[in-house]
Amino acid sequence: MSISQRTVDAYLGQGILTATLVVETGLHIGAGNDEIQIGGIDNPVVKTPQGDPYVPGSSIKGKLRFLMEWAFGKVRANGDGKVWGWTSDDVSPGDPILRIFGTAAKKEAWLEGPTRLLVRDAMLDGEWRERALSSGGELTEIKTEVTIDRIAGKALDGVGARQTERVPPGARFSFEAAFRVFSVGGDHGADDLKCLAWTIQGFDLLEQDALGGSGSRGYGRVRFADLALKGPASEEKLDNIRKGHAFGTDAPPSEILAAVRRAFGADEPAQ
User: Fold this and answer.
1) Does residue 224 sit in helix, strand or coil?
2) Which among 196, 206, 211, 258 is most buried, taking Cβ atoms within 10 Å?
3) Start and end of every CRISPR type III-associated protein domain (predicted)?
């Protein structure tokens, strides 16, 4: 079937994914620092105008896409490091990465509808915030790091310590994402529901990796607690069914796909 034949013919609704994003090890998502201040922090975290740290939806979505591109083997062969779908050469009918995350390719090369996954900024949980402040704690922590002299085994002379701001372990954020489901080429949403199931599996990939900067140095381990999917037909709890599955590129795990189909009131496909 050609790309031109696989156009959207119906919008079937959206599923809402919710969870508590729990920080397991110090999390650093940088805000940049345009000013050099004496005694200031070298690497601050991104914050709201009120000064509360938050997790940008772009950071979560970007890391999910990175991990799922590798899981699907959708890494550009020329080694330029650009995102899959950067050009029309990457486009093929039914591509799950481009369905889920979108593409920069020209419109005429991709007619299977808009980006399915929308990830909201994860804002700091109010109860955790009040508990941290009332107990005399802070909403962020400062970690000091140095470069080690490879011979002497101590801090390298002439290279000063650098300070990195992090969200501390135990911090909790309210996570929400929406997933739009369309019927494409008369499939009654079957392919989009598979893509949603793969996306849910992607949260497990992220828990096994790291979010934000310096993941190789222990930063950024996170957990999605109480992950749930609310669809047009039902709400499904996902924590007990989403873990421990190998990532299969032919089909998502049957348990996850069944929960997704229940959420949308979709009949099981004929065997």
Assistant:
1) strand
2) 196
3) 20-223
